[in-house]
């Protein structure tokens, strides 16, 4: 008998044509890095809202059933029939999950660039990070500064670059201030810190008094609680105060996007001296970057003709701005990793723990303050 | 007693804070043109859908009551409470109506440019054209070629430039084919002729078999009837055949805009070999340029992240493309006024006839084939 190939655990999501999604752990061979690749022992990987779409395949988590063993749990849940179209392209394919993470380079391909990373702690982006080992191209690694742990660097791509991308989009498209929904989120707190540091007006929309308190404690100047009876007036006043004509919306369902446009239009036309039935000429834009609310977006009108609503996604944005601009954003993330871009987690869990009922019920809510970190080496003997 | 000042009739729309709109004719002094203006005796002015928003002030026409005399009719109708916000900026102001028209220059200001137009038949743009006389800047006039009547030139701005603007927007924003809704309209027929002449793929969405027949008789290659049970498949097939990733939507309410995006996404991702939960990278755009349906726009999702929906309006478009490009579009309109850009009217009516129940019931439906032309000199002694 030969020497057994080393293996590592990997979390998989499998949406079946019968309408069930199945989450499980599989044992996969530890890959050999190609010349331009390194092998990273993943130490930490966040469960971002943007990971959960792939993870849960639009399933209704209230239907989840749990089986398997403590070491090899299996979660099954039903995908509502009306959402099957969303997952049509992935049916019956077992998909690895996890956009980003961080860990230690334990093997390298033949190239000098790859070998230079040996032993370094790196942040990595590229999918499949809910794994114990991941082979990945050198260019998808970011070397973390001395004294930075993998847990501290695990989330240094998605949320930090998204928050910076919002401000950069604002500047490039000629706006001067921002509205942000679900603003007390991990990402929202980063955006608040960026805007305070850069002197950019930011209107934070939250859904509870507790979230409002969180942001105010962080120095946020404009916080509007959508459950307040005076929400419309407060939002309009904050938009007037900041001059915001651009919003980034993580909710992406229901009337909120249209409501923001209406308040922007009231702000834009409040000093109009001549009536125009086409509304103000000020362009008002909402970019939807998340779908916390799966209902349709409802645009009731009443904001004239100079408006837009559209999807916004980090990767095409980074491609559009080009390598140099994208690198400048990454440099800022590394420089401010323990301040502006610090992430906080409710809990660290192993791959197996991530598939337990208590964990899924907590992070599956995608609620502010319930962010989980997967630490795939937890409980593994060195 | 001195000589009486000459007067002319003008149609007015007055939305009152009490929720009533009142349409009537008033007698106004014939204005003296300023140096850079001419006085036009308006011979013809179309009732475009874009005029009816200002005319009816979002009133519910089923509540219309008719009073006054045959010569000076008065129409009153109720504005639904939920639409009062749309007209808040014009309450208690008596507004002239009518974006465009054509007529004869009967007096001119002192400038050479103005005097050069004396006696010419001109098309004019600028509002208030449901009048017997209109003083207007020379630059808002377009001299009609010899042998062109005012009726033939009355609608040479709004619909022709909008149709040309759609194709120009398509080219400037990197799309190569178009989808158009309410496609059997006067404007839609122009767009069909432009696209056939220019070799641009056009998917015409209509709402009846009769409209489908109309467009097919005009040579339209792709016509999809939204009342067909196979509409989704037919629309997707037409989008695949043309490669359309841009739509212009006159409906602007309900699920249609989102439905078009979904079909575009199916077309864009049909050959995908790797699943992306963010959908295709093809940008899919719907511009809403009308609101034939006053319900909210409903965007159900399922078309990834590369999408946009927004308002589109002719005047900002013309400003954005600049003087030379706008002039090129106008030149084409004049050159093809009796072919590509010919308008057809169900009826010509005087100002007083335009406020009679039968007329309002007909053109107020904004239905394809029910376009009216106002001829303000009708019945007036020379």
Supply database-style keywords.
11 helices, 382 residues, 19 strands, globular, 7-stranded mixed sheet, 6-stranded parallel sheet, alpha/beta, homodimer
In short:
Two copies of one chain form a homodimer. Chain A is an alpha/beta fold.
Describe this structure in words.
2 copies of one chain form a homodimer. By secondary structure, chain A is of the alpha/beta class. In chain A, about 30% of the residues lie in helices and about 30% in strands. Chain A is built from 11 helices and 19 strands. The first copy, chain A, has helices at about 50-55, 110-115, 150-155, 160-170, 185-200, 210-215, 230-240, 255-270, 315-320, 325-335, 355-365; strands at about 5-15, 20-30, 35-45, 60-70, 75-80, 95, 100-110, 120-125, 135, 140-145, 175-180, 200-205, 220-225, 245-250, 285-290, 295-300, 305-310, 345-350, 370-375. In chain A, strand 1 and strand 2 form a beta hairpin. The mean pLDDT of chain A is about 95. The interface of A and B includes residues 269, 291, 300 and 302 of A. Strand 16 of chain A pairs antiparallel with strand 16 (about 295-300) of chain B, so a sheet runs across the interface.
Fold blueprint:
The structure is a homodimer of 382-residue chains.
Chain A (H helix, E strand, L loop, with lengths): L6 E9 L4 E10 L7 E10 L2 H8 L3 E9 L4 E6 L15 E3 L3 E9 L3 H4 L5 E5 L7 E5 L3 E3 L6 H4 L4 H15 L4 E4 L5 H13 L2 E6 L2 H9 L4 E4 L5 H12 L3 E4 L6 H14 L14 E5 L8 E3 L7 E5 L2 H8 L1 H13 L11 E3 L7 H7 L8 E3 L8
Parallel strand pairs in A: 11-12, 11-14, 12-13, 14-15, 15-17, 18-19
Antiparallel strand pairs in A: 1-2, 1-6, 2-5, 3-7, 3-9, 3-19, 4-5, 7-8, 8-10
Helix pairs in contact in A: 4-5, 7-8
């Amino acid at each position: 008998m030969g020497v057994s190939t080393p293996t590592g655990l990997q979390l998989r999501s499998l949406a079946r044509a019968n309408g069930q999604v199945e989450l499980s752990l599989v044992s996969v061979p530890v890959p050999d890095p190609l010349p331009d690749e390194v092998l990273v022992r993943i130490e930490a990987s966040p469960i971002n809202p943007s990971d959960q779409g792939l993870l849960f395949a639009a399933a209704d988590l209230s239907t989840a059933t749990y089986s398997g063993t403590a070491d090899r749990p299996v979660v099954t849940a039903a995908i509502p029939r009306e959402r099957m179209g969303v997952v049509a392209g992935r049916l019956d394919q077992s998909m690895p999950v996890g956009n980003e993470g961080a860990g230690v380079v334990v093997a390298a391909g033949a190239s000098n660039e790859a070998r230079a990373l040996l032993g370094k702690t790196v942040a990595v982006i590229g999918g499949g990070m809910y794994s114990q080992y991941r082979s990945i191209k050198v260019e998808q690694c970011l070397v973390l500064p001395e004294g930075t742990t993998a847990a501290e660097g695990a989330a240094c791509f998605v949320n930090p670059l998204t928050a910076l991308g919002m401000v950069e989009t604002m500047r490039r498209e000629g706006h001067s201030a921002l509205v942000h929904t679900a603003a007390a989120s991990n990402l929202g707190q980063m955006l608040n810190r960026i805007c305070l540091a850069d002197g950019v007006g930011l209107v934070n929309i939250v859904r509870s008094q507790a979230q409002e308190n969180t942001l105010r404690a962080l120095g946020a100047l404009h916080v509007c609680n959508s459950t307040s009876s005076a929400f419309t007036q407060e939002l309009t006043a904050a938009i007037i105060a900041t001059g915001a004509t651009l919003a980034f919306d993580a909710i992406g369902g229901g009337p909120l996007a249209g409501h923001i446009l209406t308040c922007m239009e009231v702000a834009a036309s409040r000093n109009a001296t001549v009536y125009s039935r086409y509304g103000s000429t000020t362009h008002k834009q909402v970019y939807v970057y998340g779908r916390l609310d799966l209902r349709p977006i409802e645009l009731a009108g009443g904001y004239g003709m100079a408006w837009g609503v559209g999807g916004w996604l980090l990767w095409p944005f980074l491609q559009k701005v080009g390598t140099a601009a994208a690198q400048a954003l990454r440099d800022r993330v590394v420089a401010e990793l323990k301040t502006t871009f610090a992430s906080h987690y409710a809990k660290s869990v192993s791959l197996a723990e991530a598939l337990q009922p208590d964990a899924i019920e907590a992070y599956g809510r995608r609620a502010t303050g319930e962010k989980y970190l997967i630490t795939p080496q937890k409980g593994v003997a060195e």
